[in-house]
Amino acid sequence: MKLKDSLKTLKAAADLTRLRLLALLAAGEATVSELQEVLVQSQPRVSRHLRLLCESDLAEKFRDGHYVYYRLNPDTATRGFVAVVLSQLDAEDKTLKNDQKKMSAARQIRFQQAWTDTKAFVAAGRTSIPGLSNTDDLAAALSDLTGDFGELLDIGVGTGAVLCHLAPRSAQATGVDISPALRVVARTRIRDAALNNCTVRQGDMHNLPFDDMSFDTVLLDQVLSLTDRPRVAISEAARVLKPNGRVLVLDRIAPVKSNLEQDYTLEGLAENQLAVMFAESGLRFGKRRDLTGRLPGFALLEVNSTLEMGLPQIKPFAA
Predict the structure, then answer these.
(1) What is this structure's pTM?
(2) What per-residue string of b and e applies to 153-186 under the rule 16 or more CB within 10 Å gives b?
(3) pLDDT in tens, 64-122
(4) Is 48 helix (H, G, I), strand (E, B) or coil?
(5) Angle, CA 229 vertex, CA 204 and CA 267 arms, to 5°
(6) CB of 251 within 8 A of CB of 299?
(7) Are the CB atoms for 207 and 79 separated by under 8 Å?
(8) First to last CA, the chain
């Protein structure tokens, strides 16, 4: 940091309430109402402290549906500064421990309310993967992927199970989902896993709220078989992918179909249909890893860029 910026940052952190806020945000994203409940302070007062943290670039805010969330600035230098400041605090401090306890309690209440929204889970097809254990076939397939994931985007983050598994190998991990209930569950899972490099956002796979070439790895997480517009979703995934990045597809992949023109169904896209659609976006199938312990046809596909290798794109066939 420059000297002037460092002074501004130090001044922003030099307050008891803002130190408590930094400690809470270091453990995960939070709304004003959650922070207000933990600190037992008025909404205007909490908002003022959060505004000062944002103005000093220690924190940032974003809207998710009806809520505004706050998180630490993902900038490496900023997070390093916050980590150093918090490391000097007494880990057994009663105020800080009580803050974390109250935040966990508040999150668990929202988690339980969201988890009872069974319609959201059934509609998203998320009841089949409640979590990942070390012996899980999906966990083994994900671990078999080489290299780190850099800036990771999980499209259809659901309950956050896959995101939590990949986050330790990512610089930053972002999950998007259209379901408010699922986003609450994912945030709680991320916080419980103590992963501070993750964020969850409202987002539609057909119109992602990100700039072109923003991510090194894009995961289409059980979403292609749930849309009647898979081409649009694939095109969006390719748009936000950096050059030489890779796409991962986790879904039910049906056997090869002889008629590529036939309608798509929720029973799963055919592998050759997907291959053509990815080729239209300059991407080519790599290794397939079948997950025999799950639904029939469930697999993890690795898709790589072909544009950098100068391979021709396939002309789209009529929709």
Answers:
(1) 0.80
(2) bbbbbbbbbbbbbbbebbebbbbbbbbbbbbbbb
(3) 988 899 999 988 888 888 898 888 888 889 999 999 999 988 888 887 777 666 555 55
(4) helix
(5) 105
(6) yes
(7) no
(8) 53
